[in-house]
Amino acid sequence: MFEHLQNKLSKALHILKGHNTITEINIASSLKEIGRALVDADVNYKIVKSFIQRVQEKSIGKKVLTSLNPKQLITKIVYDELVSLMGKKSIEINLSNDPAIILICGLQGSGKTSFSSKLAFFLRKKNKYPLLVAADIHRPAAINQLKLIADKADIPVFSLKESKNVIEIVNQSIFYASKKNRNVIIIDTAGRLGVDEIMMKEIQEINQCSQPDEVLFVVDAMTGQDAINTAQSFSKVLNFDGVVITKLDGDSRGGVAITMSSIVKKPIKFISNGEKIEDLEIFHPDRIANRILGMGDIVSLVEKVQEQFDEKRTQKIYQKISKNRFDFNDLLEQIQQFKKIGNIKNIISMIPGIDRYFSFYGNQKDSLKKIETIIYSMTPYERNHPKILTDIKRKKRISKGSGITLSHIDLFIKQFHDMNKIMKKIHAHSGKKIVKDFIYQMINKENNV
Predict the structure, then answer these.
(1) 415 near 361, Cβ under 8 Å?
(2) Contact criterion met (CB below 8 Å) for 290 and 296
(3) What are the CA-CA distances from residue 178 to residues 98, 103, 133 (Å)?
């Protein structure tokens, strides 16, 4: 998510490195590259032009504090403008009523059904009792798809297979939710290939019938500026409360997330960045701006870690580290726990500098998988005794078994010992603090490189 934009902005800001003052000359080339990066990310040209103008106005003649350099100052100004462009702050969904009714709408293929299930799973973790309503009576197998996803997470789905009356389905679902003590109703509606009269009439009838507390419009990030145009057209007919952007883990350039809020004048409330049911995040403009600028998102990471947190297991690992007994089996277990948190690419993007630990294979996405392959190619004795892997014969055998070059095996073993040293510096006694301190230790090390 935002990888391409992050790399380009990093290069653009790097131009200012080494300068002591900000001048029209040295900032011009940097701003030009920032503009190109945003346009390449599918941000509307007029918005980019206005964005660059504001950054320029705020930076020229700005006094640089002795504790900062021009690059840091411009980064701060760009950060502030990005946050403003993306809506300034996160807006929570309205769940004040019992039951709270959430209406999901959007075009066909935008990911409404998957998002509905993810939202139900997300709210259940917040101690809510959601009910999914299969109100898509047009698309073949839509009800089955919703049930298939929801069943895996043990979330109930209300449907009337024999009925083709969507108003009846919605009315019955509200009665059913009351009977089963479900305090959130999520209505998954039908999508169309475009914003047409039939689609709008049906969604207006559902909206009038259900009187939802929240109407969320789902857009596919892969469609770029078309997603923004669709949201604008839709908002003229139905006054939705917020936008959900799906498929941000795909080959999208991120422009839709950056500009949606400022153009449509509606807040982005959630982003979906993976296929798993837990791959859903509240949209925080400030945190996303941090990720775009390569500064990570520690708050979101800690929140995700704590969802999967196992205090006993963490204490056990900590004790092994303190006694210098942390081995490859422990690392393998930690990687498997790490993968449970969510999409690996997104997790890595939350930790500034950590990509160096996962980039030595040339493909950040597959790095953890390759690390697992290396460990699985070791004997049980080698996994338990990392220090014996100075033997070249052992390393050659592991290289052959894993299909990883010998130089990468050497680098991995070195990084394992480096990571061990970082972890040994942690003196916390609380499990949750161990997790946080470990993250901050890694950040501090990277910032001092």
Answers:
(1) no
(2) yes
(3) 9, 17, 13
Closest by CA to 228, choosing from 269, 191, 260, is: 260
pTM of the model: 0.71
The tens place of each residue's pLDDT in the chain, 449 residues long, gives 677 787 888 888 877 765 666 667 778 888 899 999 999 888 888 899 999 999 888 877 655 554 456 777 788 888 899 999 999 899 999 999 989 999 999 988 889 999 999 999 999 989 999 999 999 888 878 888 999 999 988 999 999 877 889 999 999 999 999 999 999 999 999 887 676 787 788 899 999 999 999 999 999 988 888 888 889 888 888 899 999 999 887 656 678 889 999 899 999 999 988 888 888 999 999 888 888 887 654 555 555 555 555 556 666 666 666 666 778 888 887 777 666 665 555 555 555 555 555 544 444 456 778 888 999 999 999 999 998 999 999 999 999 999 999 998 998 898 888 777 766 654 443 444 444 444 444 444 434 43
Beta strands in 239-292 (DSSP E): 242-246, 268-272, 280-282
Q: Which amino acid is located at 406 in the chain?
A: L
Count how many Cα atoms sit within 13 Å of the Cα of residue 256 in the half-sphere of its side chain. Answer: 28
Task: Domains for the chain: give ranges and CATH numbers.
Answer: 3-85 (1.20.120.140), 100-295 (3.40.50.300), 300-447 (1.10.260.30)
